[in-house]
Amino acid sequence: MNTTTATLPDSASHTYEQVATASNEVAGLLAKRLKTETQGEVLFSTADRGRYATDASIYQVIPLGVFVPKHAEEVATAMAICRDLKVPIVPRGGGTSQCGQTTGVGLVIDHSKHVRNILNLDLQAGTVEVQPGMVLDSLNASLKKHGVWFPVDVSTGAQATLGGMAGNNSCGSRSIAYGNMVHNVLGAKAWLSNGELLDFSQFENSNGREKQIGLFVKQLAVHHQAELQTNWPKVLRRVAGYNLDIFDNQNERPYSPDGKVNLSHLLVGSEGTLAMTQSLTLKLSELPTAKVLGVVNFNSFHKAMDSAQHIVKLGSGSLTAVELVDRTMIDLSLKIPAFAPTIRTAIIGEPEAILLVEFAGTDKEKLKRELKQLVALMGDMGLPNSVVEMVDDAPQKNLWEVRKAGLNIMMSLKGDGKPVSFIEDCAVPLEHLAEYTDALTQVFQKHGTKGTWYAHASVGTLHVRPILDMRRDGPLKMRAIAEEASALVRKFKGAYSGEHGDGLCRGEWIEWQFGPALQQAFAQIKQHLDPLNLLSPNRMVNPPKMDDTSLMRFGNNYKIIPIQTALDWSAWNVHNDAATEQTTLPGTGQDPAQGLAKAVEMCNNNGTCRKFDAGTMCPSFRVTRDEVHATRGRANTLRLALSGQLQGGLESPEVKEAMDLCVGCKGCKRDCPTGVDMARMKIEVQHHYNEKHGLQLKDKLISNLPRYAHIASQWPGLMNLRNQSPLLAKLAESLTGLSAERSWPEWKKDHFFNGPRVGVSAEEVLKASKPVVLFVDTFNGYFESENAWAAHDVLFAAGYQVHIASRTKQDTPGQHLCCGRTYLASGQVNKAKEHAQTLLEALLPFAQKGIAIVGLEPSCLLTLRDESLVMGLGEMAETVAAHAVLFEEFLEAENKAGKLDPLKIKLTPAQKPILVHGHCHQKAFGLMPSVTQVIQLIPQAKVDLIESSCCGMAGSFGYEASHLEVSKQMAEANLLPSIRNNEDACVVADGTSCRHQIVDGTKRDAIHVALLLAQHLIK
Ligand SMILES: Cc1cc2nc3c(=O)[nH]c(=O)nc-3n(C[C@H](O)[C@H](O)[C@H](O)COP(=O)(O)OP(=O)(O)OC[C@H]3O[C@@H](n4cnc5c(N)ncnc54)[C@H](O)[C@@H]3O)c2cc1C
Ligand code: SF4
Ligand code: SF4
User: Fold this and answer.
1) pLDDT tens digit sequence for 591-601
2) Structure pTM?
């Protein structure tokens, strides 16, 4: 065997270049064959290719096409077609890689949608065999009942796939206890690029081709023994290059506990360049039943770093993590409503850094004693009273969520300067950690930037991203910082790539790390396994330069097309200073799209919107599992459109398709770590689409409802006919696109707006001692008047003088006040603004007097705190927003102020358990605790919050025939089954459309919280 040359065959090395400039003919042929020979999804449109051109890195490489296999076998078929046509293949899972591993020309094969099953669970052996597209958290959710888990707990566990984790040799927060991915993989079945399906497992039991591969690699290891010993980093966290040392382990932890060679370990960390994984056999660990957490507060970052080496010695095997959160991260977390309360539970004063020290096992009492040892150690080190001891599970879990979101929190910085991942995860031996971080901080300062530090202090892998502007001098600085950081890594005998892999970003550093001889050996491994150079070519072998701007998302040619926006996006239109993180004034960022482009570019592709656990984001992705229907897919589509990479821009059919299933739930506004507000973007996009294509009949019908409601309600018999006649319903469906299967809200002749006048006059409320203004929206006013009356009655019973907000302008007789929501829902910003203006003028005098303006329908009331502020309505909008509250928020605040005693004594005990479903906008504003707390004013109330995403009705979304199925699926994901499983419960839902979905899907009524309270008032 020749172990000295490693050139790739000419034809193979040219393949990549050829496909990079591939003709439509190759793409056409590829698509055609995939379509005829498989049942998978064949995605070759410009938009689809653009959406798969990026991952959570700074890179963008447009692939030839995308294939989403329906079955695992179709991967082999796709590979065979690629082989025939000489098209490279880019394997992909969740696409959350940070170094550009999943970007490449050729065919991207996305395993995450269908190829994601457990194939075999052997509890006795403590193993599980999974398909590569299975998401880590979903595996662990199904293992939980057996008391075991797969412990490589990456921060992206809610969206990272096992195939991707193996590809990158991912490492979790608890790697000090469990090791990296490679230490937890026992076997892999994988296709080589020539179509052979091999079983990579114990070398000593291998035969045939597997044995041949093993012998080849073994010979290389023997041949390069000297370089392995001198050049190979010895730290746990080394993930660069191929694992040539499986035959001569250089790591502080053996690959396998028994020291035997397992050939699957060669594939782990190979980033899809050696073989395509069909399945992985994983080693399971016992799920710890007890955990305690000590949060050590430090007044100097250096001290925190220096302490890590001593802390890791604690715990006699039970220490599972030592994780860092620095001052910047603490400050950023404090600014994010979802995280602020949690981070406050962990800090004492204003620490410069905190270390999260976890002990896990089965005996809580023993762990508590170990926690005390930590307290004692810190005392000995001159830091008495510096540890927050968390022994209960809930606060620990909350804090871990914040730590896991660390990177994303950092990315929420507005402006073109962004924290860039390229020396993100260098690992150094613990004794050098403090010196290394000090030195690197100075490097950042020298280049006019700074970095935020966080992550795995236990294993010397501290994440840090200097802030760089990749459209300007970022690439130059990136190179300079990388050079200096690498010198430090070498000085401290560390690993340059300690967690996130090589990809485009670190490919060129493999040779730097291991030397030319080992790089040559890697090339030989690549050639031996993939002589066709079909699998992610030019990545780990012959990689491009990390700062090749032609491969970057914001490369040289990136330009935003000027547009006039309907909404005000100036808050995003800012510059930031890399060294201070200060941003310039809104509107000064020179975005030709007036801030919209910069708002869209906030998406860094981290993929959190692909999660399925708690939170609302993203209901449409949860149902379809399509990249196009994730917030990320939408943001990428908009970025392509705004930067001229998608013909037709915002008005293109591709943008329409991407936005079609966005229900405007605002889930992303809260749950997306960088605050991508797709609901607002949808309004903007629809505005542009309407300008070009006009409005559809259904949009006119629904949006104008507040305008014609007073007339329609006079003819309820006629208006409700459609609900009684299936024929009419069908006819209406064909005319309007509103599904015949859905009933429409019933019109009533007698409703709140023409019913008996309740409440006090405007003059009276302005002088009242306990004043409140009730804003009754179209839906509660006309269709569910009982809610409006109930709200009045409850407030009245609580001793308030209630004024019902009404129009001050009498130019539109009979009309009530409206926030403009129905117009916003179809992008009619100008009409929405007219309505909002009238509403604001009516409410302003009360707001100016500091009187609370209480609303019932979350989407309407919260429009005052959201969209009204970006429609150019000036200070008036700000003033009203400051006083606009939901019914439950008002009562909660008043209760806290001790003002609800008159109400409390009038409430009768609850007879049934109460189940609450939150409206998405309530959740987006973090208001669900108000609902549950207000319900608890009712004596003996037993309240449960349904863990649900969007109900699927979302205004008019679920009424539309084209969305009916998706709408039902959203509801069935959790909401409706939870209600069916609680037959006795009284269901509370504050959203009109949520109530409608619930009654449609379960035949059970849901009621507004105001009505619930009113029902419990002593008669
Ligand atoms: C915010 C954030 C936090 C992160 N935190 C961590 C962390 O804590 N620890 C950590 O290690 N990483 C972390 N990462 C990096 C990344 O999330 C992980 O590497 C993750 O495991 C990748 O999973 P994925 O499904 O997204 O894989 P992808 O990015 O889709 O793919 C990863 C690699 O695997 C290859 N691959 C995928 N499927 C196959 C297959 N079937 N056959 C062969 N090759 C395949 C791909 O080609 C690629 O090279 C983080 C990333 C982000 C954005
Ligand atoms: S939309 Fe938000 S959560 Fe989704 S990938 Fe982009 S930044 Fe991440
Ligand atoms: S608004 Fe809701 S549906 Fe739309 S992208 Fe955001 S989370 Fe998804």
Assistant:
1) 999 999 999 99
2) 0.95
